[in-house]
Fe-S cluster assembly ATPase SufC
Amino acid sequence: MMTLKINHLHAIIKETGEEILKGVDLTVPTGEIHAIMGPNGTGKSTLSETIMGYPAYEVTQGTVEFDGQDVLSLPVNERARLGMFLGMQYPAEIQGVNNADFIRTAINAQRPEDDPLPVLQFIQRLQENMALLEMPDDITDRYLNVGFSGGEKKRNEVLQMLMLQPKLAILDEIDSGLDIDALRIVAKGINHLRGPKFSALLITHYERLLEYVTPDKIHVMVDGQIVKTAGPELADELEADGYAKYEQIRRNGVSK
């Protein structure tokens, strides 16, 4: 069972010492899709980046385990080798790096050195996934994210996910800036991987993504802590009433 288990996680910004994560407890079992929602500045992106080992943050307390292993002791590439994937909120533009070459290199980095993915098999999979995401043929020949629209960047993150086939995908605001057609396509990509050997953690501000990708659980995060966990019906409440009730719960120091 490739369960993600986070226990009492605290993390600070290294440069300033400001504490952002203030005791996060969260479990995402394999085969389930969970969503984290919450107001701006509450630590959602920090959580995703801390799980994957972004160097701007330092863990001061707590644990993060995946498949029973302590991932906090592992470098980023070893976390990826375990089957963890991060779809970034702001994908980087990298001049001179061909998009298809980048994806193939990432796949082969997770395979034994003497067993790279055959080129024809790679091309076939790439074409199938591009068709699923309704991406133009030339996007693989362009430099990574350079000149991509916002929607193309987000679809390219999902393309990487489909090609890498991770056991756990953490998608940080994969829906931000998307029109309704692009949102539908991105959701189709996520649902394509849904199954008993795949889990995902969706970080979002809005319930519209969850109309297309129904989560097993929704967690409300306020001021560096999870203060509420419930089923998919919680999205409708948050859309109608906002986060004020849960901000008050956090101020009172009570989780529900």
